[in-house]
Amino acid sequence: MIKKNGTVYRLDTPNTTLVLQADTAQMLYYGPRLPAGDSFAPLARLGRRFFSAPGREDYAEYSLLAEYADGSFASDPVFVRAKVLSEKPALPDLPSSYGEGKTLELHYTDRVSRLHLYITYSVFGGCDAIAVSARVVNGAKKPLRLRRLMSLQCDFPGTEYEIVTFHGAWLQERQKTQRRIGRGVFVNDSKCGSSSHARNPFLLLKGEGQVYGFNLVYSGNHKEIVECCENERTRVLAGINDFQFDWTLAPGESFYAPEAVLCCAPTEDALSARMHAFVAEHIVRGKWKKRERPVLFNNWEGTYFGFDAEKIDAMAQTAARLGAELFVLDDGWFGHREDDTSSLGDWYDNVQKTGGGLAALADRVRAHGLAFGIWIEPEMISEDSDLYRTRPNFAMKIPGREPYRWRNQLMLNLAEERVQNFVVRSVSDVIVRSGASYVKWDYNRCMTDCYGKGVAGGEYFHRYMLGLYRVLQRLQKRFPSVLFEGCASGGGRFDLGMLCYFPQIWTSDDTDARERISIQAGTSYAYPQSTMGAHISACPNHQTGNSNLLSVRFNVSCGGVLGYELDPCALSAQEQEEIAEQIAFYKANRKLLQFGQQYRLEGRGVAGYIALSKDASSAIAAVHVLQGSLTEPPVTVRLKGLNASALYEVRVRGKEETFTATGALLMRADIPLPLEDPVKSARENGGSFRSVMLLLKRIRG
Ligand code: GLA
Asked: Which of 135, 154, 224, 490 has its CA 20 to 30 A from that of 361?
């Protein structure tokens, strides 16, 4: 997988090749896999480098910026040596990918400042993503200040590229946005302390015939820069954001940049498939890796803060009857929390609301045959809490400055060790006390008042993340069987860093099925469907006021990990019956829906997905029809991922009719969808959009 020829190193994955010239720090080639035998010598003239620093002719954005004790900034790291390691080194205190493979470690030194730069590239057997990391060691006798260390730099020839990012906001996360940069510098970043609702760290660069994907195994401030350089070259940088970043390295100390991930493929679909395989195999870990996820009921949208033990018991009983496997008690069970103004940090039971305590209520839920799950927001503190009254210094605040309140709450100063210990203790107590087998880990505000006694301001954001990762690592070790679901007001921290600890993440607080289509599709560019919590909620939808048929909501939620976010007792007998049937269907097809190869389906007025078994012998497709009028042309779809020469039987879920067609026809022809008359449907279904689920079985070939 890694071959050496002089100072040229060739890294092969099953479908791609990366060629690096170690002594001149050049990326000679990155693209589709090449046959053996090339020397790559002619490519050296392109001058595409995989790191850069000021002090040479290169004035494009740098990957490394260090300020030395004498006040100078120039660095000129020269090649020292290259090593091929048979084990992938872990990054201390940071999450990173794992698995069998080979790592190329390249070492450079700036002879004047004695700064050492190590860059590693890891390839895994059977996987097309490459993990890249960078580390700086201060070899001088005086401290240096690191102002920027990007995890990855890739220079591409030419400037004719499109960039795709996944922008958004709360309730509108990861909307695919594509543009040409033209000349200049494009930045995709986050400065709010988390990877953010607004800009996911995942980015695509689309060139002729090839799509390159970049991501970070990091959950804090990130920055991706794409620069069309003056010498007809396009540079991509990805790493920790240098906003408010200024890290002092004492003599002998190291700084590890978060791991970056690099991937390329001929199409967006192929790139997503490669990213999905990488996440499933090399990011998600522990007991829940590739394990079917339970169907849950969560009480949040069903009750908000207004519940008692009787209500929860009744909801759990009904949920169990409908086929649920897990009941999640959301916000409001602790301290004196009746609304969002109090009690964060007081993770002891509200005896009244829980009918005698969490343990008793969890037992009542379990008595119905369900597992018990619990919501907690461990990184936060309410000013109206015993914790704040006794330990005001645990809060993230700047002395002498009124803190900015967001959802009426402050954050804990996780950069400090005793606060980390407090969080580990409180979460552990809640899990032990309730016997919870699932934890929804929420995070409902961003950072504003970044300050910790003894922590340099320029180090704060990253020290917070290191503190958080330390906490998560300890909890993962102590509770290896517990399924943690990440949440940050929905999808505000949906990234590879969190996925190293949380096998799934609540994709968005927006549960409107129509809105969820683009949120889930955008998320699916980088992350597999088994990582996406996708719940059905009540109608009219609480975020948008829209209503959609239960069957339509189901078709959308089957694109991720199915759950229900409503009061099952408030449903009619007919709705309950329909949900019981949905859950039975989901369980029977869960392996395929959660872990099959999923592709996005797009077309004129339609969107959706198809999930296929490994050998493409069975598949489930959901096609959502977003428009409809009297003049509607036939609505059609082209499927993906099927075996072209096989014959499939296609059935429409909920209908008797079937038809047969070859995989080739289903993928190449526009197949008309069996839809109801659009106007009649709109009238009868209160404006719900139409959606069909197709069940495919290979019957020959
Ligand atoms: C956040 C979450 C919701 C819910 C509430 C509880 O908004 O995203 O799912 O848990 O907090 O306060």
From this structure: 490
Q: Is residue 290 a part of any domain in this protein?
A: no
Q: For the chain, what is the mean pLDDT?
A: 97
Name which residue sits closest to atom 6 of ligand 1, judged by CA.
331
How confident is the model over 250-266, as a mean pLDDT? 98
Q: Residue 481: how many CB atoms within 10 A of its CB?
A: 8
- Judged against a pLDDT cut of 90, whether residue 687 lies above it is answered with no
Residue 409 included in any domain: yes
Number of domains in the chain: 3
Token pair 């099925």 in the structure block, residue: 513
Residues 333 and 436 in one domain: yes
Q: How many CB atoms lie within 10 A of CB 429?
A: 13
DSSP category for residue 150: E
Over range 193-212, report the average pLDDT: 97
Q: Which atom of ligand 1 is nearest to the CA of 565?
A: 9
Ligand 1 near 537 CB (within 6 A):
no
Cis before 399 (ω within 30): no
CA distances from 500 to 218, 239, 294, 476, 495 (A): 10, 17, 19, 10, 9
Any ligand 1 atom below 6 A from CB of 9:
no
Question: In which band, very low, low, confident or very high, does the pLDDT at 193 lie, cut at 50, 70 and 90?
Answer: very high
Q: How far is CA 440 from CA 227, 305, 351, 373, 545, in A?
A: 39, 16, 21, 7, 26
Last residue of one domain, picked from the residues 540, 560, 595:
595
- Torsions phi, psi of 467, nearest 5? -65, -45
* pTM for the model: 0.98
Range of the domain at 526: 296-595
CA of 301 to the centre of ligand 1 (A): 9
Please work out whether the CB of residue 442 comes within 6 Å of at least one atom of ligand 1: yes
One-letter amino acid of 687: G
Residue 182 has pLDDT above 90, yes or no: no
Give 38's contacts (C-beta < 8 A, 6+ positions apart). Answer: none
- The protein residue with its alpha carbon nearest to ligand 1, atom 12, reads 331
pLDDT of residue 499: 98
Residue 347: closest CA among 434, 429, 437: 429
Ligand 1 center from residue 489 Cα (angstroms): 6
| 119 inside domain | yes
Q: Are residues 9 and 116 in the same domain?
A: yes
CA distance 557 to 625: 15
Q: Read off the CATH number of the domain in which 631 is found.
A: 2.60.40.1180
Q: What percent of the chain has pLDDT over 90?
A: 94
Ligand 1 pocket check for 330: Cβ under 6 Å = yes
Residues 463 and 569 grouped into a single domain: yes
pLDDT value at position 231? 85
